[in-house]
Fold:
Amino acid sequence: MKRDAWQDLALGAVLLAVAACLPWFGGSYWLSIGVTIAMYTVLATSWALFSGPTHYISLATTAFFGIGTYTTGLGIDHLPYWVLLPIAGVLGAVLAGLVGLATLRLSGVYFVIFTLGLAELVRQIITWVQNFSGQKGLYVLTDITEADIYWQLLGLAGIVFLGGWAIGRSRLGFALRIIGDDETVARHSGINTARAKVILFMVPGAVAAIAGAILAPRYVYIEPLLAFTPMLSFQVVIMALLGGTGRLWGPLVGVIPFTFLWEAISASFPNQTTLLLGLCFLLIVYLLPKGFVGLIESVRRWAKSREGYA
Amino acid sequence: MRAPNAVLSLRGVTRRFGGLVAVNDMSFDVTEHEVMGLIGPNGSGKSTTLNLISGALAPNAGTISLRGTPLSQLPAQDIARKGVARTFQLVRLLPSMTVLDNVKAGAVFGHRRRWGSEADDHAMAMLEKVGLGRHAFAVPSQLTYIDTKRVELARVLASDPKILLLDEWLAGLNPTELGQGIDLIRALREEGRTIILVEHVMDAIRSLCDACVVMASGTKIAEGTPEAVLSDPEVIRAYLGDDDA
Structure:
């Protein structure tokens, strides 16, 4: 392995360790911001692992997230908490695999619509089932603290980054880049494009479900509209695009500023949040089509060419 | 029935698009180390035949086999893995990747699968072979037209195919480039590669091909050495019309 690779890994580990100190130094406000950032980092980074190279925009994040939330909600009284996280991950991966098999032959806009519909479908099914049982929602009562949730999410983020880093260096990652550039070339070069896409689509599915399972205790009371809010899927897409999907760390540089922007918007304009979310989406797509990553890289190139002339 | 040393055999291969029979009952063999020219007027079904062999399309009837293994119903990726590699009539490169990574795609996922430095070295060797070693870290948009064709050829070679399908690889080149292109394919021929050329450039067919299959309106109308088929009255009629035959 090259030395750069070890440096990247070491840098990542140091940053993660620094982030892990937040609960001891920040107050409860900063801790709750930290949980939000960690959650969206996990979701947006895993989303970009699949959607970055393939350009398939998935709006199913909330479907997987909600399934994870409900796994904890339903299982917490019967099973130890630590077992629920892997169960949620497996459920998310299986659902993503099924969705992938059914839809990844579809291209572009059909896939987007299907994933949006899927999230709504799962929500409606759960609402329907709950009508029989007479409950509106589920209580998740645990002694898990905000700091515990934060550390779990950081751990998950570490796993996502490590996984993304490994995939980027694997044949699977290379195959996905080829598929994203030209699927016909990929097929004629000997790549099983359907299998590669399905396998990679299972990663964000599993990760979002685990994130949902981790966050369930924070909500205390969960109901379908909360666990399966379509807003979550859109926010993940916006953050990932704002950061840029071309690099593993791209979504992270989108998540942090967007979280603060969102805090400001929802504090100042609580009734117009959806409108302003849409506006942000438009501005990002028009002004920063390649996200902050693209901006940083064109500035770098510009600086380099200046150096060349000097 | 199959020639004993045939690498690729087509038997009764037919493909219809609605009422149009694009390829009608095609049968031929390509033997080892042979360069076979597939020629014919525009719209005669040459490219469709190539698409059937490479798995871009599935035949409605007939069989295609590679050393006796049937290919006809396999998806394109399995056919590529078994050792059939093709270039495209309109060059297809991977725009976001370097030239070296473009070629690596063949080395990593093709008939012989490599990874890591072995794949890099092999891709680099193929780039050297087509004369592009110094452009390894360029991106496709920086290349001239013939160089993009060279990259595609290198990608195909990197997969160690048993048979190469070149779809009008020489089309659109200027006279100097054409000379270079013919030399490059001749070098491959001298290495003993087995190649099917779909081509319109007659000079190239005469100087490169061991055998030719001539198609018109989806049907094979002649087969033999280039000299023989190009002087066949029926071939001349297909290309030029009745008055010149």
Observations:
- The CA atoms of residues 66 and 135 of chain A lie 17 Å apart.
